[in-house]
Design a protein that fits this description.
Elements (H helix, E strand, L loop, with lengths): L1 H19 L5 E3 L3 E3 L5 E4 L5 E7 L6 E8 L7 E4 L6 E2 L4 E4 L5 E4 L5 E4 L9 E4 L5 E6 L2 E5 L7 E2 L4 E3 L4 E2 L5 E5 L5 E6 L4 E5 L19 E4 L4 E4 L4 E3 L9 E5 L5 E6 L6 E6 L16 E5 L2 E5 L4 E3 L9 E3 L12 E7 L1 E3 L3 E5 L4 H9 L6 E5 L4 E5 L5 E3 L6 E7 H6 L18 H4 L7 H9 L1 H22 L5 H11 L3 E2 L2 H7 L6 E5 L2 E7 L5 E7 L6 H12 L9 E7 L2 E7 L7 H4 L11 H21 L3 E2 L9 E3 L5 E3 L7 E2 L20 H5 L6 H16 L7 E4 H6 L10 E4 L1 H14 L16 H14 L9 H10 L11
Parallel strand pairs: 26-35, 37-41
Antiparallel strand pairs: 1-11, 2-8, 3-4, 4-5, 5-6, 5-7, 8-9, 9-10, 11-12, 12-13, 14-23, 15-20, 16-17, 17-18, 18-19, 20-21, 21-22, 23-24, 24-25, 26-27, 28-29, 30-36, 31-35, 32-34, 33-34, 33-36, 38-39, 39-40, 40-42, 41-42, 43-46, 44-45, 47-48
Family: Belongs to the protein kinase superfamily. Ser/Thr protein kinase family.
Keywords: ATP-binding, Disulfide bond, EGF-like domain, Glycoprotein, Kinase, Membrane, Nucleotide-binding, Receptor, Serine/threonine-protein kinase, Signal, Transferase, Transmembrane, Transmembrane helix
Subcellular location: Membrane
Length: 806
């Protein structure tokens, strides 16, 4: 009995000492700390940073395992183990166990977070003067560090890379490197996703960035310079050594540089990314309007709308009325909001029309709830969703809200030129608090310097253009080609130019349901593919607006659009020329053995296609559903990289729409999801279904979208009923899927891989590809997203798997 008592007593004394003694600079295995109010486990040698349990602001009995500034008045947190889930204030514990794993356990003993390290009893944990919490396997071997997984703050010498990101406490606003190597701010709210910084209205060069870098790294140095590999730079207004600083993405969606006043422990804003806060997306929620008042930024509701949550403007406003499609036109009127606009989500766009005509278009559409009109150019944008609203005195247009007449008469907004602020004073605290101490000069700068900023930006573009044009001869050829690509942006071609480029449409490359593709050579000797569209019923300006949007899309796995032509009845698109034609030429031509794709090429094509579709579905500024994913629309470069063609031609849709409204079925039989036939709402999952068919075809090398030939012995062994024939059976796609499902569940050999490969393939990759394909062909609610598919395939992306016979 005594042999059991002594270890228990020792453990109890160890725990008691740990909870009462001063914090350490380093701890070793076996050390633990029980939760307590701001109880410190570790402190950095220079005492700048502390690490331990930090109370949640929302509850007196919830705590986070965090790192914070010791001497800041508000004990500013710079890192948290898991910001989403606090632990209980009773008997929760952080410990470095004897396996060398740092573990946070909740009151019930469950693991709330862990470092997933297991280097044994010689492992130690230290808090460095930089604020980096590190786990060491030896004196100079770091096996884990908090700097690799930042939350909302970046500290000096800590790197922001392609592998991590900063996120606001709500997780709605994120700072990260996009696929084009540009550092961006993204709003990823519960209903919409959109990039808002740098301005999505301009390309990288116009925003002062460069896409021609591959490092994807940003860092704040000790002097107060925040530098990014894409050319962005933020310099602290108090530049110099010896000042404690941080970069934080705040809850309002802006990321700022803060400097600590050592004498009073307060923070001062010494730099910020977004100069005009109303450009931050999601700031005022759905239907909300952001506007500038003399000393702050505030949110308001439009006439006839009320705020949803007085404590949280991110939830936006809701209408106090209903608009039914059966209501007579004369029951509605429009309330003007001067200099108001809602970014994106246009229902229609028209040009060179009068205000009366624009009003009529909105009045006659039951989907239209508002429109923006720019009088000088006669531009009319009708809206069926209202996000990212703002009132800005320099905006050359006005917004008009469609409301029932009885709402109009009761609205105070109709009695003055501005809009009514239908929120209590406390509701603007969320925005005002972002401009706390020493920040009044920043908000005033919005008004006094805006014109100067515009002039400076314009001058910068002029100087940059001059430099590019007159210094080009001194550049290395690779850089020169890069600049040429940037400066030859998406443009409008004349019909005559494309007739000459194609030699009067002489060399046909391919033909599809929406047009014929011809080879062409532009005046600068660039080889292009020119698509002559058929059955395009859009007006010239609507067509122009849509293809211009598509032309802004740029991803390595999407065919790049260089421009378009719209003259009279002629509608043509100009694309980059992709050398190796389409995937179907390599998968289904049994006669041409030279075109047989190796397994590594097939996997690369499957992954590239998934990445391209994931970009269209999840990362585009406008949500795009392809609607015709098939091997004929997957082109192959000289290196057999996949490039998806014909995206964006079927339908451009607002991202937050739950479904798309199509007047007729689109796509190719055999690749079309059941939703088309069943007349169900169409969303991005139709592309997932089509991708599943294509993925199975990549694995099998057979055209599964028609009929599949399967060995009869496989059918018999799996006891699948089928018509009796000799030797082999012809079956439809869904029957084949059932065969494959039973192969997977029964553990039978996956005997469906293209026989022409003669067994030379990666079995693990083939299995995961088949499983993903089968899941894509499930009912819509069970299909994965393309983003998840791309991530799952990347796990198996083994570039070292290149046997000599491949």
């Amino acid at each position: 009995m005594s042999g059991l008592v002594y270890p228990i007593l020792l453990s109890f004394l160890s725990l008691l000492l740990c909870s009462c003694a001063s914090p350490w600079h380093t701890i070793s295995t076996g050390t633990s700390l029980q939760v307590d109010h701001e109880k410190v486990l570790l402190i950095s040698p220079d005492t700048t940073f502390s690490c331990g349990f930090y109370p949640s602001g929302n509850s007196t009995n919830a705590f986070y395992f965090s790192i914070w500034f010791t001497h800041a008045t508000d004990k500013t947190v710079v890192w948290t183990a898991d910001p989403r889930f606090p632990v209980n204030g009773q008997r929760s514990m952080i410990s470095l166990n004897h396996d060398g794993n740092l573990v946070l356990t909740d009151v019930n003993g469950s693991t709330a977070w862990e470092s997933n390290t297991s280097w044994g009893k010689h492992t130690t944990v230290s808090l460095l003067d930089t604020g980096n919490l590190v786990i060491n396997a030896s004196a100079d071997k770091i096996i884990w560090q908090s700097f690799d997984s930042p939350t909302n703050t970046l500290l000096p010498t800590q790197h922001l890379t392609r592998e991590n990101r900063l996120a606001s406490h709500s997780d709605y606003h994120r700072l990260y490197f996009d696929n084009d190597n540009v550092l961006r701010l993204l709003y990823n709210g519960p209903e919409i996703t959109s990039i808002y910084w740098p301005s999505p209205d301009y390309n990288a060069l116009q925003n002062g960035r460069t896409r021609f870098n591959s490092s994807k790294i940003a860092v704040l140095d000790q002097e107060g310079n925040f530098l990014s590999s894409d050319g962005f730079r933020m310099i602290a207004s108090d530049l110099g050594l010896g000042i404690k600083r941080r970069i934080t993405i705040d809850y309002d969606g802006n990321f700022r540089m803060y400097s600590l006043n050592a004498s009073n422990g307060n923070w001062a804003i010494t730099g910020e990314a977004v100069q005009q806060m109303c450009y931050v997306h999601g700031l005022c929620g759905r239907n909300g309007i952001c506007e500038y008042s003399p000393r702050r930024v505030s949110c308001t509701c439009p006439p006839g709308y009320k705020m949803i949550d007085p404590e949280n403007w991110n939830k936006g406003c809701t209408p106090t009325f209903r608009i039914d499609c059966g209501q007579p036109y004369e029951e509605f009127t429009f309330i003007k909001v001067p200099h108001g606009d809602f970014y994106g989500f246009d229902l229609t766009s028209n040009t060179s029309i009068s205000l009366e005509e624009c009003t009529k278009i909105c009045l006659e559409s039951c989907l239209c709830i508002s429109f923006t009109y720019k009088g000088g150019e006669g531009l009319c944008y009708t809206k069926n969703l209202l996000y990212n609203g703002q009132v800005f005195p320099y905006f050359p247009g006005d917004n008009y809200f469609k409301v029932p007449k009885n709402v109009s008469s009761a609205s105070s907004a109709s009695k003055h030129t501005g809009i009514t602020a239908c929120s209590p004073e406390r509701s603007t605290v969320m925005l005002v608090s972002a401009y706390s101490k020493n920040s009044d000069n920043i908000t005033w700068a919005y008004f006094y310097t805006f014109a100067a900023i515009l002039g400076a930006v314009e001058l910068l573009f002029i100087i940059t253009g001059w430099y590019v044009l007159f210094k080009m001869h001194n550049m290395p050829k690779s850089v020169e080609e890069g600049y040429k690509m940037i400066t030859s942006q998406f443009r409008r071609f004349t019909y005559r130019e494309l007739v000459e480029a194609t030699g009067k449409f002489k060399e046909e490359l391919g033909k599809g349901g929406n047009g014929v593709v011809y080879r062409g050579i532009l005046g600068d000797k660039k080889v292009v593919a020119v698509k002559k569209l058929t059955d395009v019923r859009k007006g010239e300006e609507e067509f122009w607006a849509e293809v211009t949007l598509i032309g802004r899309i740029n991803h390595m796995n999407l065919v790049r659009m260089y421009g378009f032509c719209s003259e009279g009845q002629h509608r043509l698109l100009v694309y980059e020329f992709v050398e190796n034609e389409s995937l179907n030429r390599y998968l289904f031509d049994d006669r041409d053995t030279e075109r047989l794709l190796s397994w590594s090429q097939r996997f690369k094509i499957a992954l590239g296609t998934a990445r391209g579709l994931a970009y269209l579905h999840h990362e585009c500024l406008e949500w795009i559903v392809h609607c015709d994913v098939k091997p004929e629309n997957i082109l192959l470069t000289r290196e057999f990289e996949a490039k998806i063609a014909d995206f964006g031609l079927s339908k451009l849709s607002n991202r937050d729409s739950s479904s798309l409204n199509f007047t007729h079925m689109r796509g190719t039989m055999g690749y079309m999801a059941p939703e088309w036939v069943l007349n169900l709402p169409i969303d991005a999952k139709v592309d997932v279904y089509s991708y599943g068919v294509v993925l199975l075809e990549i694995v099998t090398g057979s055209r599964l979208s028609s009929e599949v030939t399967v060995g009869k012995e496989d059918i018999d062994s799996l006891q699948i009923s089928s018509g009796e024939t000799e030797g082999r059976e012809e079956m439809g796609l869904m029957q084949f899927v059932q065969v494959v499902k039973q192969m997977l569940t029964s553990g039978a050999d996956l005997d469906i891989v293209d026989a022409r490969l003669k067994g030379h393939f990666n079995h693990e990759q083939a299995t995961v590809m088949t499983k993903i394909a089968i899941s894509c062909l499930d009912e819509r609610s069970k299909r994965p997203t393309m983003d998840q598919i791309a991530k799952d395939l990347m796990v198996y992306d083994d570039e070292d798997y290149h046997p000599a016979y491949f």
